[in-house]
Write a structure and sequence with these properties.
Blueprint: H1 3-15, H2 23-30, H3 34-44, E1 60-63, E2 66-69
């Protein structure tokens, strides 16, 4: 995989806990529309049979041969107060 595609995947995974990257950042970083970006990300993270590639972001923890994905929610924090 080339550097551009690796950067695209890492960029998405950094923004994923926040609901994904904003369209303005996608355009500035990659010169793609939001739809083009997401289509390319999906294509890059699927193998030939259509199964997702295992997560490798820093927000995951390996357990044996599987990977558990953790997502951040401010509501899961004990000190978070709903407004």
């Amino acid at each position: 995989m080339d550097k551009y595609n690796l950067a695209l995947i890492e960029f998405y995974r950094r923004w994923e806990p926040f609901g994904g990257p904003p369209a303005s950042e996608i355009l500035a970083q990659f010169g793609l529309s939001e739809n083009q970006f997401h289509a390319r990300y999906r294509a890059l993270t699927r193998n030939r049979k259509g199964a997702r590639v295992p997560e490798t972001s820093t927000g995951s923890r390996e357990q044996g041969s599987t990977t558990t994905k953790y997502t951040f929610s401010p509501h899961s924090l004990p000190w978070a107060v709903e407004i």
